[in-house]
Amino acid sequence: MCPEKKQVTHSYIRALLHHKCPRCRTGDMFKVSNSYRLKHFMKMYDRCPVCDQLLEIEVGFYYGTSYVSYALTVALSVATCTVWWALIGFSLQDSRFFIWMGCNMALLLFAQPYLMRLSRAIWLSFFVRYNENWRTEKPAEPERLGSKPG
Q: Looking at residues 6-20, what average pLDDT do you find?
C-alpha cells in the first residue's frame, strides 16, 4: 500500500501572499512564479491547475483590482511615512520630507509588480471562497451572457 500524498493547504494570508487560488489555496494563479519577470509576470491561467476554478469570472473582471492596488499603495506609503517619522522625523528646516517622498516613490516603483499580482489575488478572493471539499465538489460555473446552453 502506498500512502496517499496529501497536498498542503495554505492559510488565507499565506495563499494571498503567494498568489494561490482562493478556492483550493494550492494552485498557482499565475503562469510565472517570479513577479519580476516583467515580460510575463501578469499572465494567468484560465483555470486553476489544481481545482479547475475559473480565474477570470467575467470579461473585465480584474478592473476592480485598481481599487485594491490603490489601497495597498496608500497603506504602504502610510507605513513608510510612520516608520520614517519615528526613526528620522520630519522638519520644515531641511529636506527630510522630500527625501522620504523619493524613497517612498522608489519603493513603490520596485514593489508595483508584486502589488499588482497581490491585488488580483485579493480581488478574486472577494468573489471565490475557500472550499475544504474542493477535491470532491466541482467549482460553480459562472453564468455568461452570449454563451449557448448545451
A: 80
